[in-house]
Amino acid sequence: MGDRVAIVGVGHAGFAPITSGLSYKEQTFEAALRAYDDVGINPRKDVDSFVAVSEDFWEGTSIFDEYVPDQIGAALRPVHTVSADGLFAVATAVMLIRSGAAKVVVVEGHSKASDILTLGSIHQFALDPVYNRPLGISPHAIAGLEMNRYLEATGTSEEQCALVVQKNRRGALDNPRAAYPTEVTADDVAASEALWWPLRRMDVAERADGCVVLVLASGERALDLTDAPVWVLGVGWSSGSPTLESRSWEEAEYVRAAGDRAYRMAGIGHPTRDIDLAEVDDTYSYRELMHLEALRLARPGDAGPMLEEGYFDRDGELPVNVSGGSLGQGYLFEANGLARTMECVLQLRGEAGERQVEDAGVAVAQSWRGVPTTSAAAAVFASNDAVAS
Predict the structure, then answer these.
(1) Is the dihedral of CA 263, 92, 343, 114 positive or negative?
(2) Model pLDDT, residue 202
């Protein structure tokens, strides 16, 4: 199988707005048990390396990776910590396997967002300490400015952004792990509290607690472990400008760079033709449309009208965020990318239940770490049948 890498096991715990009676360690242990049971391995014997995603600022503890090994079965084992979104950890696992350093790698990411009491203050650390941080700018204010610029530059409307919320919240009704499943209309979004114009309360994904654990393996090992591997065809990541003053406000060029790298590695020449479904970042409603355009799944300014026409519905030409996305599942911080990856795996294995996309063979997942950062990652996955054909 050469350099091939596959996802062979998935597990999760949550997702819920608040899990007051459950610690992050218990969440992680539950997700890990499910992942190991899914593929039938013993982490103490069958796993060569572990990758965890965490951010000390969220956790409230320095060198947080020291608190991860016990609950994933990695005590006294190699554990790599990536202070980034979960898709970066998937890319790290791919590199560990393709380099020959490991044959089986476990990736973990979690959110215990309900424990975070000073989120706004923590966000300030991502802003320039001289020019921006003293202003005390909310990330929603930055998102509002960006949304306004994106709408003006592309001709996208607030109503089209509201339709993203309607689609994803409705899609979450068929996802048993979603924290915010509900039937809403675009009018409900328009009537919700104004945050920073034109951004409204329902345009923003609400926080959730949860954990996702994935098991990846080399080609030969994958076929020994499962009859339904989901192959990682390509991964890519990129960062844009770290400063508010010098970044592009109407497009996510760093998402485009990450997507293009993943497409090249996967041999995807025509994303609109070759991709069957997409799980993309929708931290803010307008961001789903912006990211679809950056991933070359729609031309600039076309994502909104395509959404109105049903192109991105579950039964449309290109189903997008049928899981409910972050707007429906909840915002999971570093675990966001892993939640998107898990949905792609379930879809490509034909195990997505009522939200199953018919004939899904190739999927793309994309993550963004959120305002005010400009880091993003993308990955392309394929079912075993799609690769065999």
Answers:
(1) negative
(2) 98
